[in-house]
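hey so i finally got around to running the thing on that chain from the lab meeting. sorry it took forever, my laptop kept dying and i had to restart like 3 times. anyway pasting the input first so we r on the same page abt which one it is
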Amino acid sequence: MYRLLQEDFGDLIRFPGILGRKDVVMTFLPDDFEKVFRTEGQWPTRRGMDTFVHYRKEVRPEVFKGVGGLVTEQGESWQKFRTIVNPVLLQPKTVRLYVDKLDEVTREFMTIMLKIRDEKNELPADFNQWLNRWALESTGVLSVDSRLGVLEEQESEEARRIVQLTRELFELVYQLDFRASIWMYYKTPKYHRLMKVFDELTSIAMAKVDEAVIRLEKSPSTSTDTQSVLEKLLKIDRDVAIVMSFDMVLAGVDTTTSAIVGILFCLAKHPEKQTKLREELRSILPKKDSPLTPDSMHNLPYLRACIKEGIRLFPPVGGNFRATGKDIVLQGYRIPKGTDVAMGSMVAQQSDRFVPRAKEFLPERWLKTKEPGCPHSKEAHPFAYLPFGNGPRTCVGRRLAMLEMEILIARITRLFEYRWNYEDLKIQTTLVNTPVNDLKFQMVEVDT
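ok and heres what got predicted. didnt touch it at all, straight out
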């Protein structure tokens, strides 16, 4: 969709606001991205999801107690929330605590992948839903310190509902917040359904947090070095801890799944890169079931290069969003302060104008030492590729998201040689980019 807009209307587009919404300016030039980010100010403003704000501030204020979370907060209240969560979520030693726990989830998922292949060693068409279940189970470990049970063979009713409700939430939010809707003036059937979905998900999430609080009170960590994300946040601000746990579940499922699909597709289509990655992984996983540890994962440059390059070609979202921090000029047009600007980085990072050989899958471009015959990432425009945003409002969960992807791609690549035998991957752009194809990857277990 973004590429078609750019081809039809050029590098700068104005979308008039409708039904009470503000105008939106969309740009596809990295020079513009840089200008917007460098002038966003101390408290960057990103257009929130109106349905989230409405639910948390108006429908259920007694539950959220004025804490909107990173999705909805702006200005000083956003900075206060971010000041609390940054030191916890962005600490490398905090991320190290989760290697064993996330690897446990992922190894269980490998057992499932072995079982669900057909006689041609192909995964089922709905493998995307299995990835969602893996991502949700992993996010449960990160957010509420417990397993949600969505990977169990006999999936519980609650686990099934969590998966279904999370999927439905994103579909409804996209319909109401990003497409024309009159819900702010007239409460439509989709509005009422979304409020019910919010209620049910909130009830489940709060119950999980309450269970975790009781468990942590009975068996607290003896050292701050071993305290989980939830435990550390609870000691600072209980309300922030609850909202952050809820938001981690919502933000960490579809985006992670989308990224994984793109990375696997790129490696499946380039067996020589896959083989090179497998050789790197054998240095830390001499056996297919060797344990992953924080130390063993420290030096995996090609794995991280493959993930970066896969996300560049198949990003989970279309770009970044900011309101201008002051009057600026983009491509000769004056853009007033407070204007919502959509930055279509999905187009820019795949354009030869800004990234050399942009259509090719070249993980080597991300390695520290430049490989002969391969362009280096430093030759690309520095603002073309910003998968986690930029500046103070960059994604607070980026370290944990990268760890999840590193562990899963490492385990799959060490256990399987995989191929893609169908037409190229196609993506549908909504709130999150999702695959259109059946995900029938062929997965052949490696001998050693």
